[in-house]
Amino acid sequence: MNNLLKHVLIFFMIVSVSCLNAEENTKKDTHFYMELDLYTGLKAGICHSFHDRIGLYASAGIALVSPTQISYNAFAAFALRDAEKKLRIDLNAGIIHGVFDVIGPQIFPNNPEYGYYYYVNPGIAFHVSYPIAKNLLAGIRLGTEIMIGYDMGSWRVHPQPQPNAALTLTF
C-alpha cells in the first residue's frame, strides 16, 4: 500500500503545481478543492459558488492510515467577509466528515478490525483561507461534528461533539 500512497501524493502534487501556473480568472464559479483532515483523510473535490457569499463543497478520498476507508464530505459555505477581502472567513455546515469501508471486509474477511461501517457526521466549522499564489487559497477548517453511523452491526449516534479540523487548498 505504500506505493499506492506515494502515487496518490505525487498525483496531488502535480495537480497542485500545474494549478499554480493557471491563468487568473476571478469570475470562475467552480474550483478544485483538496483537504487533509484530522483523521488523515486526503480528499479532492470541487466547490461551486452560487453567489459571492454562498457556495457548496463536495469531496472524496482515502484515509491515509487505512486506505480501504473512503472519506468524503458535502457542505455549504457562507462567507462572513466580502469577496474582495484577501482573508476569507467562511462558516461551513453540512456533512463535514463522512467515512465508510466496504473494501476492507472483502480483502480481510477474517479480521474483526475490518467490518462494514458507514458514518455521516453533520457538523459546523469555521474555515479561514488566504491566497498564497495566483488562483491558490490555503486554509484551515476548525469545528465540531456529531458522529452518526452504522458500525458493528447496528446504528449508532455519539451525542458528544467530536473535533473537526482540516488543512485545505482551493484552486
- What CATH first level would be assigned? Mainly Beta
Number of domains: 1
| Share of helical residues | 10-25%
How far is it from the N-terminal to the C-terminal residue, by CA?
28 Å
Radius of gyration over C-alpha positions, nearest whole angstrom = 17 Å
- Largest sheet, strands/sense/barrel: 8 strands, antiparallel, barrel
Write the CATH architecture name: Beta Barrel
**Could you name the CATH topology?**
Porin
Query: How large is the share of residues in beta strands?
Result: over 45%
Tally of DSSP β-strands: 8
Number of helix segments?
2
Order of helices and strands: HEEEEEHEEE
Shape: elongated
Task: Look at the structure and give the mean pLDDT.
Answer: 86
- Can you list the strand order of the major beta sheet? 1-2-3-4-5-6-7-8
Q: Secondary-structure blueprint of this entry?
A:
Elements: H1 2-20, E1 30-37, E2 41-49, E3 54-63, E4 70-79, E5 88-101, H2 104-107, E6 117-133, E7 136-151, E8 154-170
Antiparallel strand pairs: 1-2, 1-8, 2-3, 3-4, 4-5, 5-6, 6-7, 7-8
Would you write up a description of this structure?
- The protein has 171 residues and is mainly beta.
- The protein is built from two helices and eight strands.
- An eight-stranded antiparallel beta barrel has the order 1-2-3-4-5-6-7-8.
- Strand 4 and strand 5 (88-101) form a beta hairpin.
- The two termini are 28 Å apart.
